[in-house]
Amino acid sequence: MILCHLQNSRMVQNSQHIFEARLDNVRCMSSVLKSVAFKDYATVFISNNGLKVTVEESKCAQVNAFLQSDLFQAYEFSSDTLVFRINLNVLMECLNIFGGAPGHSFVSLKMYYPGEGEPLGLVLEEGGVVTECQIKTMEADEILDFNFTSVGVQNKIIMKSECLRDAFSDLDVSSQVIEMLMSPDAPYFRLSTFGHAGTTTNEYPKDSDMVESFECTKTQINKYKLTLLKPSIKALLQSTKISIRMDDRGFLSLQYMIKTEDGNTCFVEYLCAPDEDNED
Amino acid sequence: MRFKAKLFDVQSITQLQSVISAVSRFCKTCCLKLTEDKIYFILNDRLVCGGTTIWCEVTQSSYFDEFRIEGKDDTGAILMSVSPDMLAKSLCNTVGASSVKVKLAKKQSACLSVEIALPSPGGSGMQRLVTHDVPVHLIPLSHWQEYEEPGMPEFDISFYLPPLRKLRNVLERIKNLSNHVTVQGSWSGEMTLSVKTELVTTKTYFTDLDIPQLDSQVDTSRASAEVTVDIKKLLTFVQSQGIGASKSICNIVHNRALQLFLLQDDVQLQYYLPSIDTS
Fold this sequence. Notes:
Order of helices and strands of chain A: HEHEEEEEHEEEEEHEEEEEHHEEE
Strand order of the largest sheet of chain B: 10-6-2-3-4-18-17-16-11
Radius of gyration of chain A: 21 Å
Number of strands of chain A: 19
Strand content of chain B: 35-45%
Order of helices and strands of chain B: EHEEEEEHEEEEEHEEEEHEEE
Radius of gyration of chain B: 21 Å
Oligomer: heterodimer
Number of helices of chain A: 6
Shape of chain A: elongated
Distance between the termini of chain B: 50 Å
Number of helices of chain B: 4
CATH architecture of the largest domain in chain A: Box
Largest sheet of chain A: 10 strands, antiparallel
Shape of chain B: globular
CATH topology of the largest domain in chain B: Proliferating Cell Nuclear Antigen
Helix content of chain B: 10-25%
CATH class of the largest domain in chain B: Alpha Beta
CATH topology of the largest domain in chain A: Proliferating Cell Nuclear Antigen
CATH architecture of the largest domain in chain B: Box
Structural class of chain A: alpha+beta
């Protein structure tokens, strides 16, 4: 019924859009995007598989949110991969225009993109009230390629998010860096910070209930800038599981599994380069 | 000049408080006009300060159990300027109060003295008496003409607003996108809120709104009208839903002004918002 309403709405002039998608509950999308919304601008990739929203920080860290096509109730795309840059704050305000709080009635969404240089169109509906938005898109800048492949991965841990949530919310903010140790031998997985007040460490044994899978082959100790890691906390708070991987160059990959309201699973990936300054 | 009033009912105390705190969101100081039947909160902004007008009238008898007033002239009215915020705060802590007395007093300066009788926490049957003195300035007779009821503008469109909670959600979001919103209305009961900036344009359509009963003199020649106003000021009006209004009416004077009414049995809030020229 909601879809009928959208079709009848005065907005639908033609269906000749390169990209068109429908979603019955907009919160499925906005909650995932919220976890990457720490910068004003994001780069959006549209392909047959779904949407990828990328946000970069200081050319050292990158967050990708994946909204796969089966998250949407309808998904039509007829082109090669499309890329554009968009103001993420504006997009979030538009998606939440009927109020973002949970427990409200469902807000349905139709999203379309007529083609390069055109604005991204949104049509939202809640209880007979319709909102149309046109958000300007810009040409995308080049995106960093971290070249993080599963071949290079030395250590990998999959664990429940809750235990890391506590560790991250209690991090010593006076510390510049966070040190991560991953090792096949004790202490297996350790997080340390070095602040004004002293050093703190969190250790996780590999046989903890929280650890679901432990595949470490080599002892690696790497430092990451805390300011770069901060944005990933948003995703951590929403996620149920997290996969922590480190490759042979010391690059860090954090993959968050986020369950949306209607039971779908979305992934947010965070990539970060190690902090080299302290090594000389 | 004398004024003395008493309230005994806790519910009417909290209701009166919510009306005053709704007024306090619009302005720092306003004029309080007391007459035998009604009390009024009036703001008459000069055009250079934004030109908004507020006229809030409260039927005295539905709140006060005792109300005695002796005015200066034969109309029997008293006008004073007061901070509605201070007045609202003085009525804040009235949980369990057995009575509230308000009187015009002269202490160091003229003030509204609010006396709240609260039960003692020990349950000993003793009473605590809390007194707030809210300073006021009495407005001399020669200035009273500034605070007369605004005339009804010749509006082009009039309709009942959709539920204010819905309107509030939308306005709270779009205020982050722009400072101005264009309100468009039509006699067929449609209202559109639109925002246009360099980055984004949004349009929200509300349909099936009721049209109020109108006098036959109203000119309905124009099918639709629009006006651009300050989002934050419009939002303040929408946020005053706390007074529990049953109906709210919106009148549009094309490209000139927005006139809004909150109507409840014994409270009426009228808000006049001039248009902003964005071109």
